[in-house]
């Protein structure tokens, strides 16, 4: 649910409140860094899928759950390019 919440706030340029664990300031900075993203929902779903796949491959899950910070890690990750997913 956290990913969907953040994606909705980013796609709709919600200005106020904490959405998906990110403050207004964090979301504005993310939008400035990634101006070419057309669908944050698609980008974050792609990132989540890759994160979960990698976590399963390395055994990084705890009790079947992946760490909750994957949204921030992948949304802000300057190394991987998810722009094609967005």
UniProtKB/TrEMBL annotation:
A Pfam family the protein falls into: Whib
GO molecular function: 4 iron, 4 sulfur cluster binding; DNA binding; metal ion binding; protein-disulfide reductase [NAD(P)H] activity
Entry's localization field: Cytoplasm
Keywords from the named record: 4Fe-4S, Disulfide bond, DNA-binding, Iron, Iron-sulfur, Metal-binding, Transcription, Transcription regulation
Single GO biological process annotation from the record: negative regulation of DNA-templated transcription
Any one GO cellular component localisation term in the record: cytoplasm
Residues in coiled coil: none
All copies of domain 4Fe-4S Wbl-type, residue ranges: 1-29
InterPro entries named in the record: 4FE4S_WBL, Whib
Keyword Iron found: yes
Cofactors, names only: [4Fe-4S] cluster
Position of the signal peptide: none
Family per record: Belongs to the WhiB family.
Protein's recorded name: 4Fe-4S Wbl-type domain-containing protein
Source species of the chain: Mangrovactinospora gilvigrisea
Lineage: Bacteria, Bacillati, Actinomycetota, Actinomycetes, Kitasatosporales
